Amino acid sequence: MLNLLARSDVPMSLTTISTQLQLHKSTVQRVLRVLEGHHFVNFNANGRYTLGLRLNDLGNRALQQFNVRDRALPHFRMLVAEIMETGHLCVMQGDAVVYLDKIAPSRSVCMTSRIGKTNPVHCTSVGKALLAFSSSELQEKILADIKYERLTPKTHANRKSLLRDLEAIRRRGYAIDDEEIEEGVRCIGAPILNAEGQPVAAISLSGPTFRMTMHRVPSIAKRLVSCCADISKSLGY
User: Fold this and answer.
1) What crossing angle do the helices spanning 125-132 and 159-172 adopt, rounded to 10°?
2) Using one digit for the tens of pLDDT, what is the confidence trace for 68-100?
3) The whole model's pTM is what?
4) Which ranges in the chain are annotated with CATH 1.10.10.10?
């Protein structure tokens, strides 16, 4: 349906869309209403449909994310090679983070994760790093949607606890997931900022707690923050 509207030089009627797609009019209308509700299509005063402006925003975000991935990769590889712990590059989508890239070191014990996987914002180092440095408006919107599902005894159980953590993250420049999503695993995450100073992605380093000890966290975090700062500069920050 979106491809059909994209190919048309003029707004299309419900009848024309259903005819060209060979679908029942009621089915097409139902789908169009959903798309309109998300601003993927626009219903004009003449009762015809065009593509919605939300698609422009998604297109820009997609280009930005690919740009981040390309810019981050050389720095990201060097970081993992130096620290020898599993690295993840993530972006935020709503109240979740999506894993865009993963680099595993040549060690016997590495993190089991995969590109494309999602995890909650409130219990991941990348999610908390992105949330802590987001605008107050976006932060408030995401906080309102968080379900505070407890995955381990250390997972944030409420808004007050998470807000305290976010304040600490802003002060020190990085986030820690101290066995909050998986027992026995500790992660450190830091944001990547664009030219406007907004977080567009985050990188984390994850490892088993017996290796990623709290004693090692400050030195690892210092190298991680430096890496993310270099990537941010390449994006115009």
Assistant:
1) 80
2) 888 899 999 999 999 999 999 999 988 889 998
3) 0.72
4) 2-52
